Amino acid sequence: MHQATRKPIHRFRRWAAFLALSSLALLTLSGCVRVQAALVVSDNDTVSGQLVVATVAIKQDDSGPALTIPPELRGKVRTQVYTADGYVGQTISLQSLTFPEVTLLSDAITVGKQYRVSFRRAGNLVTMAGSVDLSEVPKDRADVQIKVTLPGTVKRTNGVNDNGTVSWKPKPGTVTEFNATVEYSDQSGVSWTKWVTIVGASAIGVALLVLALALYSHKRSLRAAAEPPKSSHF
């Protein structure tokens, strides 16, 4: 009789433990993600702004997703704890990152490289391209927004352009690619176009100077040939 009483209690405890573990697994697999990026590109080809990467807390001391900041960017990239609306994670602040440094941060920040972005200049055109991988996130479990303010004139983009600020809202369950091409001259130094103009103008100036000297020398030769020879007196 005593043994029969303990079996239901033991079975109940096992079911309670199973339900607790199932609930924890469900929260883990639900993939509640918040990614909010607000970046500003300056006309000297540097990028500043903030990036929030967070997930819904599933336990008391949850700190959100693990992020990696390359050591060489420590002086330009700062992180702080983010907590809001049940989400926990980090806010990453960027200060005047060059285009190669943005790529370096993007490649290193998460192990799975779910978030990628890069900038590339060709003459006066700068192209931004990137992707957000939300293929493992259920459709109702993501809050993802990307906004980038660009200098110059936006030539083309697959986002929504509002007076130079382009925004995207990647959809859960898919991999979203985003891009924008903007036209502006490089203010960090003499641009390639300006350099070609300066070199071309210098070459033309040198050619004109050589031509002028050649004409002057030729005229002197003609005058010397036209003058009668001087007679000699003995």
Write structural notes for this entry:
Residues 1-37 form the signal peptide. Keywords: Membrane, Signal, Transmembrane, Transmembrane helix. This is LppM domain-containing protein. The protein is elongated, with a radius of gyration of 34 Å. The protein folds into two domains: 30-183, no CATH class; 190-220. Helix content is 32%, strand content 37%. The chain is built from three helices and eleven strands. β5 (115-122) and β6 (125-133) form a beta hairpin. The strands form two sheets. It has a seven-stranded mixed beta sheet with strand order 3-4-2-1-7-10-9. The chain has helices at residues 2-30, 99-108, 192-226, and strands at 33-41, 46-56, 77-84, 87-98, 115-122, 125-133, 142-149, 153-157, 160-162, 165-168, 175-183. It has 234 residues and is α+β, with helices and mostly antiparallel strands. The model is unreliable at 1-6 and 8-30 (pLDDT under 50).
Summarize the structure.
This protein has 234 residues and is an alpha+beta fold. The protein has helices spanning 2-30, 99-108, 192-226; strands at residues 33-41, 46-56, 77-84, 87-98, 115-122, 125-133, 142-149, 153-157, 160-162, 165-168, 175-183.
Q: What descriptive keywords fit this protein?
A:
2 domains, four-stranded antiparallel β-sheet, disordered N terminus, membrane, 11 strands, elongated, 32% helix, alpha+beta, 3 helices, 234 residues, signal, LppM domain-containing protein, single chain, seven-stranded mixed β-sheet, 37% strand
